[in-house]
């Protein structure tokens, strides 16, 4: 199985998450959902970008049902030691190695706070602020004031104030 075949088959989120989770859990540590989410970042699987909590719960349920994972206590899971492969043997398995490689290629390492440069952070923040400002302006331009409810007038005022503040901030930032 090569990377192109994995990408061409467009593996489902659950399949990619399952492969990453099995590799992660192969160290035989007991993990709760929070630990899994944090540790999945090392497999380039980012919560709310590559998967959501429903995907993770579904994969955990499937792995528990197939007895690949064992529920140690409420909310805590561990790889089933009776049919567990060691971390190194699992990672050397060609199927899982191809999946690990494919995951790294499909989801290249993202800029995390540890790897992100300050200039990249600054540029990204500016881009997001400009995008937000554009969205606000587009929405405000398309509004028909005569169709607004009385309760929406206060919110419209807040949005207009936000637009003014954002415009001012971006102008000051560009001049600096």
Short key terms for the protein model shown above:
176 residues; mainly alpha; 3-stranded antiparallel sheet; 8 helices; elongated; disordered N terminus
Q: Can you tell me about this structure?
A:
This protein is mainly alpha-helical and 176 residues long. Helices cover 63% and strands 6% of the residues. It contains 8 helices and 3 strands. A 3-stranded antiparallel sheet has the order 1-3-2. Strand 2 and strand 3 form a beta hairpin. Helix 2 (13-25) crosses helix 6 (94-106) and helix 7 (118-142) runs antiparallel to helix 8. Residues 1-8 and 85-89 have low confidence and may be disordered.
Compact overview of the structure:
With 176 residues, the protein is mainly α.
Q: What is the H/E string? A: HHEHHEEHHHH
Q: What is the SS-derived class?
A: mainly alpha
Biggest β-sheet: strands ordered side by side in the sheet: 1-3-2
Alpha carbon gyration radius: 23 Å
Shape: elongated
Number-wise, the strands total: 3
Write down the overall mean pLDDT: 77
Strand fraction equals 5-15%
The N- and C-terminal alpha carbons lie at a distance of 52 Å
């Amino acid at each position: 199985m090569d990377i192109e075949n994995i990408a061409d088959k467009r593996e489902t989120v659950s399949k990619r998450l399952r492969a990453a989770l099995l590799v992660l859990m192969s160290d035989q540590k007991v993990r709760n959902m929070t630990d899994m989410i944090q540790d999945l970042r090392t497999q380039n699987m980012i919560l709310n970008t590559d998967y959501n909590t429903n995907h993770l719960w579904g994969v955990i349920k499937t792995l528990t049902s197939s007895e690949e994972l064992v529920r140690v206590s409420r909310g805590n899971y561990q790889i089933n030691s009776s049919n567990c492969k060691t971390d190194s043997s699992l990672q050397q398995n060609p199927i899982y190695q191809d999946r690990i490689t494919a995951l790294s290629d499909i989801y290249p390492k993202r800029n995390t706070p540890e790897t992100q440069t300050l200039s990249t952070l600054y540029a990204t923040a500016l881009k997001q602020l400009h995008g937000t400002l554009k969205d606000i302006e587009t929405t405000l331009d398309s509004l028909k004031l005569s169709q607004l409810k009385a309760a929406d007038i206060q919110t419209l005022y807040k949005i207009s104030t936000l637009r003014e503040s954002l415009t001012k901030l971006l102008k000051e930032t560009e001049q600096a």
